[in-house]
Each structure stands twice: as structure tokens, then as C-alpha cells.
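INFO batch 0412 | record 1 of 1 | parsing
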Amino acid sequence: MRADRDHLRRLGVAGGLLLGFVLLLAAYAKAIDPEAFAEQIVAEGISPVSLSFAAALVALALELGLGSALLLGVRRLWVLLPTAMLVVFFLFLTGRAWWNAAHGQDEVIACGCFGNLVDRTPAEAFWQDLLLMAPALVLCFLGRDEGVRPRWRRLAVVATITIGGVAFAAVAPGLPLDDLATRLKPGVAVRDICAGAGGDRLCLDAIAAELESGNHLVVIAELEDEALLAAVPRLNEMALQTGGPTPWIVTASPPEAVGTFNWTQAPIFGVREAPPTLLRPLYRRMPRSFEVVDGAVTATWPGLPPGVAAALID
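INFO prediction complete | emitting C-alpha cells
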């Protein structure tokens, strides 16, 4: 009997370690880009825009607290029951996104609990989250000892991780984390920057095939952005220069905005339209810029490129 009890306890500990790691990894993916998480909360209908950032921080605190508690071996019911509700809620959201995508009702930008960091279809998000979390959750309930109280040191570590993680997320939008928080970073090939699956898969090189060769400077922006409008003369100058990078704007602005921009600003550089599903994982805030040399990203910048931004200051 004791051997069986030890076996169940080992299984329970393993389940707690796995589920705790998954929850902390998911929390990390959200904490480095909390504004995108807040957008997702609004899109899911969980919170109004005015409260979305606060709701994102509360949700992060829940994930951090439960994940760190499980990772440290705290498997009391007051940890496991909220964890079970959280897992069910995750699966409900990914399952609904899968159903909506299958019926053409919603355009899904970020799938599952890992946000922009993982490129997954809605179906992949549901099944992967189910297989990662559900078995681990079941194992967590095995071999528990309700008579043993968790040591206060473990609870102190849980509190420290939770408070520290939420504080980090609160200031993260102002930190230089774009290369960590998005799929756009030096070394990535433009042909590998994609969204969708199968016949619906779309990659950046299909939007601007010219990026596969030569030196280019790409700005991801909304065409109504005042900073971008002020930068158009400088971008036009760059387009006329020989030997320098060719400027481009890639935007998810609606066709009417593109038409207005072309008519009022008369750009002599390329303006390409792309769906939000392709562009949203590439930035935390717009505008965001990057350099491409022979099809590979060589540098990225928050905001406008340094040469363009400096010209505006002058």
C-alpha cells in the first residue's frame, strides 16, 4: 500500500510540475506584451476596453500564483480547484475560437494561452492546450496529503513571484522587449513570417516579394498615424536615393484609408496591405520598423527607423 501511495504521489508531483511550468510559461508570454493580452481580453468579451489592462494584470496574477504554487509542490484544494477552473476556461476560449474559425465567424489573431509567441491555428491551440493541461491537471489530484501544510517559505516564494511578475508586466510596455515579445527579430526570414495554415497560409514575402533581394526598410504602421504622416517627405527622399535601403510601409489599415493616404500624401515608396492576423504578432505598438537584406531581417526598431525619426526632430 505504501508503494502504491508513493507511486501516486510521484505522479501527482509530476503533474504539478508540468502544469505549473505551462502556466508560468503562458504568464511569461503575456507579461512581456500585456497590451496585446488586454486586446485579446476585449476581443473575447471578458472586459471593456477601459478595464482591460487592469483585467490583464489580475489574470496574470492568477496564472503566476497558481503556476508557481504547483511548481513548488503546493497541491492543496485551494490551489487545485481554481487551477481546474482556469484550465477549463482556457479550453473554453480556445474551443470557441476553433469553432468560430471553422464557421468563418471570427478572424483569430492570437491563439491559446501563449499569445503571439507561438504560431498556431485555432484547432492546434485547442488540441495542444487540451493535451498539455488536462492530463497534468488530473495527475495533480493524485497522492495529495491534506494533513501536511505547505511551508510558509513556499508561500512566500509564490507571493514574491506573483507580485514581481505583475509589477514587471505593468512596466513592460515601456521596456525594449519587442524582439522577445514578437515574431519579428533579427535573423528571421521574411518567407517565414506567416499566418494561417494550409491554403489560407499567407507570408510576408507574398505581400512584398521585393523583400527577397536587396536592402529594404519596412515600417509597420496605421496610415492615420500622425508621426507616420510627418515622416512621408523623408521616406520619399529615401526612395529617390540610390544605394540606400528602399522604404516600404506595410499596413492593416482598411482600403479606404489606403486610398486616402495615397491620394493625400502621394508616396513614391511602396504601400502594401496585409491582414491583421499577419501583422499583429510582429509588433507591440505601432509604428515598428525593421531592415531586410536579401530576404532576412537584420535590425528592428520601435517606432520609426532612426534615420527617419532623427529627420523629424531636426
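INFO post-check: The chain has two domains: 2-175, 180-313.
INFO record closed
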